[in-house]
Structure formats: structure tokens, C-alpha cells
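Example complex used in Figure S2.
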Amino acid sequence: MSDFPFLSVLTVAPLVGALVVAVLPRRRPELAKQVALGWSLLVLALSVVMWVTWQTGGDRFQFRESYPWIPNWGVNFTFAADGIALVMLMLIALLVPLVILASWHDAESSKRSVPVYFALLLVLECTMIGVFAAADVFLFYVFFEIMLVPMYFLIGSYGGHQRQYAAVKFFLYSLVGGLFMLAAVIGLWVVGGKTFDWAALSEVDISTGAERWLFLGFFIAFAIKAPFFPFHTWLPDAGGAAPAGAAALLVGVLDKVGTFGLLRYCLPLFPDAAKWFAPWALALGVIGIIYAALLAIGQNDLKRLVSYTSIAHFGFIGVGIFAFTSQAATGAVLYMVNHGLATGLLFLVVGMLVARRGSALISDFGGAGKLVPLLAGVLFFAGLASLALPGTAPFISEFLVLIGTFSVNKPVAVIATLGVILAAAYVLWMVQRTTQGTLNPALTEVEGMKRDLNLREKVVVAPLVALILLLGFYPKPVTDVINPAVQATMQDIGKTDPAPSAGTPQEASR
Amino acid sequence: MSELKLPSIDYAALAPTLILLGAALVGVLVEAFVPRRLRHVVQLAVALLAVLGALTMVVLNANDRLVTIGGAIAIDGPALFLQGAILVLAAMALLLIGERTVERGGAFVAQAAVTAESADDRRQAEGAPGLTEVYPLISFAVSGMLIFVAANDLLTMFIALEVLSLPLYLLCALARRRRLLSQEAAMKYFLLGAYASAFFLFGVALVYGFTAGTPDRAAGVDFATIHAAVAESSSSSVLLFGGMALIAIGLLFKAGAAPFHVWTPDVYQGAPTPITGFMAACTKVAAFGALLRVFHVAFEGARWDFTPVLGVVAVLTMLVGAVLAVTQTDIKRLLAYSSIANAGYLLVGVLAPTSEGVSGTMFYLVAYGFSVLAAFAVVTLVRDADGEATHLSRWAGLGQRSPFYAGLFTFVLLAFAGIPATSGFTSKFAVFSAAFDGGQGWLVIAGVLTSMVLAFPYLRVVVLMWLSEPGESTPAVVMPGWLTSAALTVGVVATLVLGVFPQPLLDLAAGAAEFVR
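Predicted assembly (1027 residues):
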């Protein structure tokens, strides 16, 4: 069964689905939605089979496939997944059907074609799967760039207020990063002996100067994508303007390409440069945690608020990656998954709330829990997961990042921990101002606020709530897959964990 | 004094050029003898058949590597590849030129000599059948281009330059509407072009003087002699550098590189749109073909002297094209500045001192030619009662009026911006990787930085078409006739195929990258 070309089929399948959906008649939007949902469920089923087929404790890279593409440049369609990529692929396959289901009526409010909206979602899924499945740097770059196009149209054509501005800003920021990476990709190709194969490139010795420049090219692209402070300003605009479903994918998955890229490309390919730049990256991460949390507290727009919380979370992931301990790195990868679940849920729930009220401004709410108790409850739960309450999945990842960092870099860990407090502030204030307290009389006059979660919406939130709880208590299935890949990445950069030395004589004598 | 001997002539190798020259002469006769109502069809058929016939001969000659007519013409890999490219792109351009259903009477004026903006002029704009002398002029221009990329000495190159330029000056003046703009464009192009030709000729003279300085060798302007003289370099380098600079000015003018680019936006805007497409695709191929030959064959030995200077020109070209494209409000001017920036990227490829540089540049030329012709094909379709609506504000909301054509145009714009899965990406990769490999990393950095700037104007058009609401004045797209449809289809399909499966053309270019001397 492991001979089955999982990754290429998984990449191509959504694209085929998108073409099918796009040619469906515009007058029958229901059909388009059903086909899109069915197709994404098929992809999910396939990825579940892949998860089952994965051999824990087997090779670092599994499901490897390679077909020649442009032999003149040594470019191949090479797909392979390590544990990190596998969990991200699972996250995509899970989120896309939920997003399709949650966006059931989103496209109707705009004047644009409904089938095209769902076709774009499937194209986006294709490119997201491709970018995580690629094991050829050129192929990775191709998916990395094409990914912008469907997202650009999702934001620009179906978004809310200021969608044009947000879409263009998103596209230009990402393109700028991508072009820096293109220069680095070409440089890597020349230094690496005209091959794009990841495995071959990771063996190449690069001179110190060249390595630093190449690292920087990749790092800027990933830092914009993730986004890290100070490259983050596009995210609140894009997240605020995008339709809720697309925003959930944008923040939940698309941005993870940045942190994934750091782990897969920046660290193993340029280990010495990564160590040299690590203090700077840690500083950016820490600034991001605090700065974005403070900005989140000040937001009056729900979607922008959630976007800012994500920037803070990406700061945590960045710190976890550049602490160079396997605990912190495992925490960072786990954070990528959990953040996808928690923030994905938060965005979807906020989207439901905004769709009912017709406004994303916090001041337009107040006491909404009295009208829609179930929805308010889910919002509260998503908020708690987002602030990493023990018992929810993000807690484990945040804790791992913090203790992993503490063992090597105490000041960073201590400052980052302050971010946990700020997280409590922005989440609880947000929940309090929207769903608690006295009922805003204007709310009772809004027709939408009289309906609590319907069956479709319950189906959307239930799996996410269940997974957040499950992984909060029993993360082992995921960590088992992640751990070998993280260990291998740490070996690539030649870092071993410090021995547990607290209280030993060596420690005292230092 | 030895007996004067006639040089041997390989007629088969020259056949493509001869066929087109013949077709041009036949075209002149057609004007004289064929009744007016049949002329358009006959002329189009003659020109298209000639181009296709010439293309067939190029394919048959594909393995030739020779120098003929006493060293005046070199038929080698780059010459054949570029001749093939010019012919394919010219065939596409001819389809656009022959279109007569989009606008009654075609895109060309019926009587060029009528005073612009007069009552007669307005009457003829209403649908009198356009001039058919266009076709012989195109044939002449294409034949000049075919010699231009194969010329093996500077004088042949100069004559080819004139043969390709003079018809273009005329063609620019023949737009059916906005006659003043069109005439102004032709005038500017002619005057500046004449200066550029003079520069070129003066450069040839200086280089001749340089070669005369080598003691045991006859002076000459063929590339082998120049190459040898540069290698010995015993004589004054002032003559060499002066000559090289003046020749470069002449060629860079045709290529539309800064600071010799100022004619480009005006001419692109004023010329009839099919002719603009023809110039953007075919003239570019010819000009860069000549640049490749001059700098990779004749002056190869002075590489370390000219590379920094031309590098600065390349950077300046990319910068000027990208930055000024941002402020444009007319789609044809925007595409003109974009073509200037692309000339900069092409120069990056020219400056890569390897055969990958040559093949990368040739690949870029073909890929860009297809895309730019497709882009101008769409421009011909967006029109109202007064002709083409080229002001960008008129394009607002086009995506809702005509999603199909707006989609095609968006795809072409993404190709210009270098998004993967389009030929724009693979061709940029081809030249940038060659330049990086050849130690010209700074040009790659400049190219990448300007690409960021250049993405903005393209994106602005995409935003206008898709994300803005259609205004009162947004015209719908006119249904194209089959000629335009064919050209548009070929252009878009080529842009996609060269982006996804570039391997066959890359192989072809790599196999054709060696010059003969």
C-alpha cells in the first residue's frame, strides 16, 4: 500500500475537483457546493489512509516519488513527506471540508459567482498540499508562489470592507518575499551543483558568506509569510478583509508555510547561518509575542483581533524553532497544528458571529450570549484554546516551547511567558465585550442574532472542539509522528539538547 | 592583385530571407494588378504563405552551421533559432494585422495622406477598407530581421537594420484612428531611429579603424577579423571602445533599453496595436539576436571591458521600465514600459558569459514574444465606438463584463509578473540562473528587486479588471474574428506550455547556442 503515489494524487485531486466545480453552471450554486464538499471529503479520506499507512519509526521521509520535469535545470517533481509535513497535510485535509461547510452561504452575499468561490478554495487546497509535499526546492518555490493567486482572488473578490487594498497588500508582500527567495533559490542551485533535490542539497558544503546570504533570502520570504514582526502588517488587513473561511485557511495553514519552510529549508540547508542568525530570529519572535498581543488588546475589529493573536502565536513558534532544542522544536511543530485547529475554530466562529450581526466591530456586540448561548459558548472555548488553557491542545505546545527554550535561553523564555498573560487579557476582554455583560439593545433587533448554531454549523465546530480536547489530553499520536522528524532536523544543524543538569555539581561549579 | 572571384552563395541557407523578399515584391505587384476588393485576402495569403514557407526552410536547414556569401551571413544555431522565432511570431502578428471583423476595414487607415482630423479623415475612419500595402511592408521588415540575426559582418548588419527599420517607421503611421498620435509616433521613431543608425555606422567606422591597426592582418568589419583583432589588441583601445559603445547605442536603441528607450512608450501608444505587438515581439527578437552576436562573437575578447558598462545599462533599463510603469494610465504605454523592463532582463541574459546565457536569452525572447502578442491581441478587443479604449480607467470591472477575455489577460499579466506555471517564470529563471552561474549575481539581485516594483502595475490592472465595479464607460469586449482568436489562443497556450513544460524549447535553445565565426 505504501507504493501508492499518495502525495502526487493528494496534490492533483483538489485541482481536478476545482476544474469540475468551476465548470458547473453558475445558476446551480447548491450543486457546486455539494460537489466541492464531497471532493474535499474524498481528499480527507485519502489523507486518513495515508496517515494509517505512515510507518512510525520508519524512514524520516516516506511516500517519496520523483518524476523528471525539466532535466536541463535538474528539476524534478519530487514529493516526500516527513512527520512535520504529514501532520500539516492532515491539518489541511481536515480544515478544507470544514471551511467549505462553514462558507456555505458566504459567497452569496457578494455578486460574484458561487461555484468559482468553491473552485478557488479547492485550488488553494491543491497548492497548500503541494507546498508541504514538495521535496524539490524548485517545486516548493512554484507552489509557494502559485498559492498567492487563489488567495488573492478569494480576498479580493469575496472579502469584506477594504478587500482590494488588503488583497493587493497581501499579494505584494508575499511576492516580495517570494522574489527574495527566488534569488536565493537560484544561488543555492548554482552553489549546490545545479540540483534542486532537497536530499542532495542538504549534503552540500557552502562557504560561510554565501550561506548567510542564502539563509537571509529564504528567511525573509518565510518571515513575511509566517509573518514575524516587523513583516506582519499585511496579515491584519488580509485576515480582516478575507471571508471567514478563507481567513481560517490563511492563518491556519497558509502562514504555516513560513514556519514549515524555516524547519525544512532554512535550518537543514544552512545550519551554520541559522545558528549565526538565531539571536536575531529569537528577538523578532519575542518582540512579535509582546507587540502583537498588545495590539490585539487594542483592536475593535474581531477578525483583526484574531489576526493579531496569530502574529503573537507565530512569535512563539519562531522562538521554538530557533531555540534549537528538540523539546522547543517539537513544541513549535505541535503549535503549528494546534494553532491551526484553535485559530481556525476561532476564525470560523467569529465568522458565524459576524455573519449574524453584519458587523465585525466588538462595540456592535455586547451580551450576545443571552441571544445565542451555544455560539457564545463555542467562542469562549475557542478563545480559551487560543490562550492555551491547560486541557486544550495549544497548552501542551506552548508549554513545550517555553520549557525547551528555558533550558537554553532563560531571558527569552521569561519574556515570552509574559505573552501568556497578555493572551489571557486579549481573549477574555474580547469574550467579555462581545458575549457577556448587559445585552446590547441593538442586537435584539438584528434578525440573524435570533438564530443559534444550526446543524451545519454544529457539524463544522464539533470536530475541531473534539480534536482540541483530545490532543489536549493525549497528544501522543501526533508527537510520535513529529518527534523523529524534529530529532533529524536538530541533528542536521548539529545541536543536541543540554543534559538535564539542574542541581548537579557541574552546574554549581560553572 | 589576384583575380576577382565571386563568393560562393549557399542559396538553400539563404532561402528564408529570399522567400520573404520575393513575397514582398509579389505584394507590390498585387497592389498594382489585383482588384481592390480581393487585395486584402490575396496579400494576407501571400504574406502568411511566405512566412510559413520561410519557416519550413528554417526547419529544413536546422542542422546547417556555415558561413556564406563571402562571410557576410552566418547560418548557425542562434541564427536559425532566432529566425524561426521571428517567423513564428511574425505569423501570429500577421493574424492580428489581417483581422477585419473587430473593426470595419481593419486597424489600418485607408488613405494615409489625408489630413489628420479633417472631414475626409473622419469619413475614412468609419469603415473604408484599410491599406493593404501593410503586408509587403511587413514582409520587407521580416526579411530584414532574418538578415539582422544572421549577419556576420557589421555592414551587413547595418543594411539589415535599415531594411527592418524603414518599413516599421511607415507602419507606425498607419493607425486608422488617432491619426495625429500615430503620425507623431512614426516621426519620433524615424528621427530617433535615424540617429541611432548614424551612431551605429560611425561605430562601424571606428571598429574598422581599430582592426586596421593590427600589423599582419587586413582590416575588415567581419566578426572573425574583429575577434582576432580584439584578441591581439595591439592597437589603440580608444577606437575599439568608442566603436563598441556607438554600435551598442545603435542596437540598444532598437532593443528599447534605457537610456535609449524614450521613443518606446510614444511609438507603442501611437502605432496601430497589431504593429505594436509585432514590434514588441519580432523587433525585440531581432535586436537581441544582433546584440548576442555582436557581443558573444565579435567583441567576446573585450568581455571584461563591456560587461560592467552594459550591466549598468541593464540595471538602469530594468529600473526605468519598472518604476515608470507604475505611473502609467494607458494600457499600451504600460505594456511599453513593461517591454523596456523586459529588455533589461534580456540584457542580463546577454551578459551571462556562457552558452546558457545565449540559450536562456533566446528562450526568454520566444516566451516573451508569445505573451506580449497575446496581450496586445486582447488590447485590440477592448473597444467602443471610437476605437480601442486604452485608458486604464476604462478597463475597470472588465472581469464582470467579459470574464473570459479578462481571465486570459490576467493570465498574461501574471506571466509578465513572473508567477510560476507561466512562461514568464521559466524564462526569468533561465536568464537569472545563467547570469548567477556566470558570476553576475548583482544583475540577478537588481532583476529581482525591479521585478517586485514591476509586479505592482500588473497587479493594478488585475485589480481594476476584477475587483472594481464596472463604470458607465466600461466597454465590453468585442467578439474577435477567427484570426485574432487564433493568435490569442496560440499566445496564451504557449505562455502556459512554456511555463509548465519548457523542456523541449530549452533543449532546442541549448542545442542552438553555439555561434560559428
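Chain B touches chain A through 35 residues (CB under 8 Å). DSSP finds 20 helices and four strands in chain B.
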